[in-house]
Amino acid sequence: MYSSSSQLRKFEYGHRLQSCNDMPSHLPIDRGYGKHVSKNVNNRDTFSSGKLNVWEEAKEGSPVNADPFLPWIHDVFPNKNGSTIHFIAQNKRRCNSGKVHWEDIHALEPQVTIMQPVSVKRIDGETARKLAPTLWSPSEERDDLGEKEEEDVVRYRLASHEEADSDGMFTRFICRFRAMDYTTSPPKLIVVGETLSTYPYNYEFVNYRKDLGDLSMLTPKGKDNSMFWQAQLRFDCPVPDNGELQSAIASGDSVLSDGTPSIYVDVVPIRTAPRYGKMMSYFTPDMVSVVQVACVWLSNYSEQMILLDVLISYFIGRGHFGSV
Fold it and tell me: Range of 310's domain?
């Protein structure tokens, strides 16, 4: 566990971009970006063997092998009204298979962990210090917090579903939004809001509905690599309703005429141990009993049968009965 940001290795990629317009073609996902030390697939050499340098790959190519809690982002874009930033990522753990890659596959377990939601509750800096006296404080080393004192800095702790914040019941990333302050000389980035990520659906629930016995999202020997439905990770960062932030993103005014961005978002993973086994899946009972829960709202027997028939038709229409 690191207690200071000075203990971390820092890699910067922004200097390779000429403007926001270049970003889609410069995401660290293929050999078109940087100088990757290995191909994404069909590799003979591995990082675990030492033949491939994970830190060189992080510097020149993709940081995911060095820190697999980072999502392997392939695309990012806002929704129409600027209230949400959509992220499309891939599960890098599935790129290679076989015994020769076992150690690398094992090291990439967090690529599936970040598909497993957690519940969190906000706490202030003072409470965080009481719970963890040696906890690193961002106010010690960051100058983008404005006038905030340590006790005013929002921190998080894991919580049960019942005690979690309403927007933190099923989350995985802290989304920290920053904007360029042009009133200072030179201009600097300041934090303008912080939200918690959301999933378009619960990945563990989808896996639960697959009729595969107790095969969980993660298995100790990497047998989950055949689960193609875990190939893609989608998550969203809600944009804070902070003045004109959403409207600036929706209109495109946050990008200057030369392509320079004025609004940024940091995606900070909440790091936890992976969950193994379907019995460790994390979702609410109403997700499992959608038909039963829906039917109790109807008192008329014929209406219940009609609703049940509609739900079954819906599932069949999706290509697999009982799947979503």
Answer: 289-324
